[in-house]
Amino acid sequence: MDESILITKAEEHIKEIEKETIDLSHISDFSTLKSSYLKFKNNLEKLQELRSDMEIKGYAYPYLSLSKYGIKGYNSYRSSSKHGFSTQADKNYEESIENNKKESFENNKHNQIYRMKANSKKNIFNRVKSAISSHKIVIGHFEGFAIIKCEKCSKTYRINDFFKVYGDKCSCSSKNLSIEVLENGVHRLKIISYLPLSGNYMVLLSRLNSWGRESFKKILKYLKQTKNSSVKTVSVMIKFKKNDRWIRKKINLDSEYSNSYEEKIREDYGKNVRIELLQFYRSKPSIINEKHTRYALALAYAGYCQTLTDKNKKSILNHYIKNFETLNEYDKIVEDVSNNEPKVLFEFDTIEEWRKFKIKEILKDKNLIDKKGNIDNKLSKDIKTREKLEKNLFAQVAPTLILWDMFKFYMTKSKDMRKRYKGPFPYLREDIDRKQREIFTLINNNAIEVLKKYNNENITQIKSMDFILHKKFKLEDNIKGMRININHLALGGAIIVHYSDLDIKNVAKLFYISEKSVEKEMENLNIIRKPRTQRSKDFLNMIKK
What we know:
Layout lengths: L2 H17 L10 H27 L30 H59 E5 L5 E3 H8 L10 E5 L19 H6 L3 H14 L6 E13 L2 E10 L6 H9 L4 E10 L7 H21 L1 H8 L3 H15 L12 H15 L11 H36 L2 H6 L13 H4 L7 H11 L9 H14 L9 H12 L4 H8 L3 H15 L4 H11 L1
Antiparallel strand pairs: 1-2, 1-3, 4-5, 4-6
Helix pairs in contact: 1-2, 1-3, 2-3, 3-8, 6-8, 6-12, 8-12, 10-11, 12-15, 16-17, 17-18, 17-19
């Protein structure tokens, strides 16, 4: 496919996605969910095909193919005499300058054309990758939102499995299907309209206000939190004897052999093998190890929470600010003057100077500023209070919400499920180390109260969230390979009850599970911690080994 045709095809598909309306008001209806899900799924498949074609064409690194054109150095000419150039030499010199000028002009022209093409390739490739990440997030939220149930045989299916295998009818051939919303699932369909589904991440970023951009930066920082360096592969240069000949060979071993590489080499190549060179290749993966997915999640949560705080800004500020009407009057004055421009500037060098003067003049008439130019004390305090609220509260709502959703996902899904099914967080690591868990200590308690009061979020303060996650990951490692029937949703609740100050009743409401299921997993935890019978003790010893 020609490069210009490929770019045009990608742009047309992206424009089609941009024109599509997102209406999730009747998403609990089977036909609505089916049409919406398949629409996003088809868009994703087309985008992935485009990305594959672009990668084959070298769109990932378009600047490598750029030829660097430059002005050639002038040829040196020696004059026939010691005192200057000869006439013929002068003519050659002038012709050389003219030729170099023409060549330089042509080179610059070609260089500009190639660079413009490379920029177009890079921009469209980034937009396609951003759109792919956004669609993966959408599909993850859909799959966590509900399951499909057959009314005839009561069989249930995950959304992806059902449409992929069965299409529009159950395995019993019945088409009487319904949607069962998973209240205990991790999903947030309201952020879908804030995702860069058409790869328009720069447009969405420009729509964020000051605290929205601050939220965006914070979320990016959290999701980019890197793990302590760990060994990814081990590269070994060995020398061993075979058929009375010494053979030198380079081999690569996986991270599982980082501490036992010598035993593995001797096992494969014999006891007389010699290690000549040893190299450890380390990696520092992020919590979400894909740039465009981090950007998409940060934009979606920041945009959604900005709308939420804007909608309830007056109510929130009324709680902290004493003279809200005066502050509103001040804001209106500043806004009106900022939208005006003087017809003629006499005493002022810039429009900004005129605006500052005009604001002070109006504030004096309103008795909001004294003769020395100082703003009224009460108004000044309210302005500073609002600035602190925007920085320390409004900008913390989105980071708090995404951290809560990630915490809930880690606590309610098994390690195997997190590895195979990323859900609403594509490229999320199935477990994280101590350094990465530190981000969960940054959840803002005031932001939690805002989310509970103004968005009816089922969220609460939990102390030592990083420590609770550590205990969950450690328990999963211990019971790995054991045939134990575990309700992982209830297990997460049981761990929270055991290591926090929340009781079973509150945790059951928090995760939409029954108290009995939490109590059952609490018993399993106690058996593992303090076994009563000899069988339980033997089981614990097996786990420790």
